[in-house]
Amino acid sequence: MIDPHKARQRSLAEKTDPARTALVVVDIQNDFCHPDGFYGRRGMDVSAMPAVASRAQALVTEARRLGLLIVWVQAHYDDVNLGAPMSEILNRPGRTSGSCQAGSFGADWFEPLRPREAPNEVVATKHRYSAFWDSAVDLYLRSNGIETVVVCGVSTDVCVESTARDAFFRNYFVVVAADACSSRPAFHQAALDALNRVFGSVHDTTDLLQVWAKHPSDGDRGWHAATKDTAAAMPFDALVDPRHSALVIVDMQNDFCHPNGVMGKAGEDLGEFPGAIAANAELLAAARAAGVMVVHVQNTNLPAARPWSARGLVSEHDKVRRLTVPGSWGAASVDELAPRPSELIVPKHRYGAFVDTRLETLLRANRIRSLVVTGTATQTCVESTVRDGQMRDYRIVVPRDAVASRGRHRHLKAASLETMGLYFAEVVDSAAVAQVWWTHRQNRA
Q: Which pLDDT does position 309 carry in this prediction?
């Protein structure tokens, strides 16, 4: 269900509610901040860093009192981690080649800032400017119900700005603690202006501390074990509540499902598909009535998107090359499940619907937490989507009668459903989901 209030303007106090906020401390390390670090030894002015670190420490102290999740981000720029583009940049005159080597004094924290052993303090190592690249930062945030990040650190125009931009693109509210960040003055202010204009809001630490000072220290937090245990025990009707669930229909297209499609004409046994189409049609009707977000995932055969590596058996390649050509009848959804103009269509080019698509952007943008995944083929595209969704912390439901496989793969379907039910999803009859959604529709009437 799309939130009609997305554009509502929120106060600093609302956005930085300790129950949904994390403090992200970026690269406050000796090589960037200490006179004996990489920059200090090369004559760069690091005289402002003790005051910046002190203000960042004040944020850390208050975050600890409130029990906020604190993410400590530490750069490691060892050669083995650097690709040619970044290595070329860092080896330009006056740049940072050789900084932040793992285990060195330069890579260590700049005192007094240092993480402590606590369940709400985690360290994420990064190898690019942004803390979100090749690190567990997003995992820590989404796993603990975080909606807002308060970012501080160095340097304002490079690693802080890159981290803040990527947080914004991942649908987190971004608040930058201006005086707990540092860079050369002109770069510092230009970065803050850009961040405040189009990526979040910029405030002094005193503003944040005044807001946080009004909160008691004993509130419920997403990282608390009891909070997670309660969420894990969610009843089924809450799991598929239309307010935070989406129906994701995978590859129910003519070339896969219809007797006149590529698979049907190749002599494949499509005996399961009429029943799966009927189950999907009932789910789709219930979803539309209840206001559930509907996403039609469609396999899209673009030559430019075909992989270098071979996929499947060589004997399958001819069929694969003829499947779901854009604009063809075979690429369209079967008539019974045709998308409405208001419904979302996500083209995909690999088995999983999350790989190189906008699916996760759509889900995050609309605060979706649970997915009902249907479609074909059970053991490939459906299971790949389910696995990737579960590993992104979505709750997954798979209606067993709304997924299908070709006849010669029915044994794989059975194993796939068992695997998904054990590790990745709730496997149920489609009627169980439809009943909840029809009930919601009646309550809305």
A: 59
The C-alpha atoms of residue 416 and residue 17 are separated, in whole angstroms, by 42
Question: Topology of 234-444 in CATH?
Answer: Rossmann fold (3.40.50)
The contacts of residue 198 (CB under 8 Å, 6+ apart) are none
Contact 291, 1 (CB under 8 A): yes
- pLDDT score, position 230: 87
What pLDDT was estimated at residue 318? 60
Average pLDDT, the chain: 94
Concerning whether 381 is annotated as a catalytic residue, the answer is yes
Among 241, 381, 388, 413, the one annotated catalytic: 381
Asked if 12-227 and 234-444 have one fold, the answer is yes
Q: Where does residue 13 rank: exposed (0-12), middle (13-18), buried (19+ CB within 10 A)? A: middle
pLDDT tens for 193-221 read 999 999 999 999 999 999 999 999 989 99
Could you tell me where the beta strands, DSSP code E, fall in 14-145?
21-26, 69-75, 121-126
Residue 300 neighbours by CB under 8 Å, 6+ apart: 324, 326, 331, 347, 348, 349
pLDDT digit string, tens, across residues 19-48: 999 999 999 999 999 999 998 998 999 999
Instruction: Respond yes or no: is residue 348 known to be catalytic.
Output: yes
Domain boundaries, the chain: 12-227, 234-444
Q: Is the pLDDT of residue 317 over 60?
A: no
Residue 329, classed as helix, strand or coil, is helix
Catalytic residue among 27, 251, 255, 401: 251
Select 12-227's CATH number: 3.40.525.10, 3.30.2320.80, 3.40.30.10, 3.40.50.850: 3.40.50.850
Catalytic site residue 251?
yes
Looking at 15, 348, 388, 413, which residue is catalytic?
348
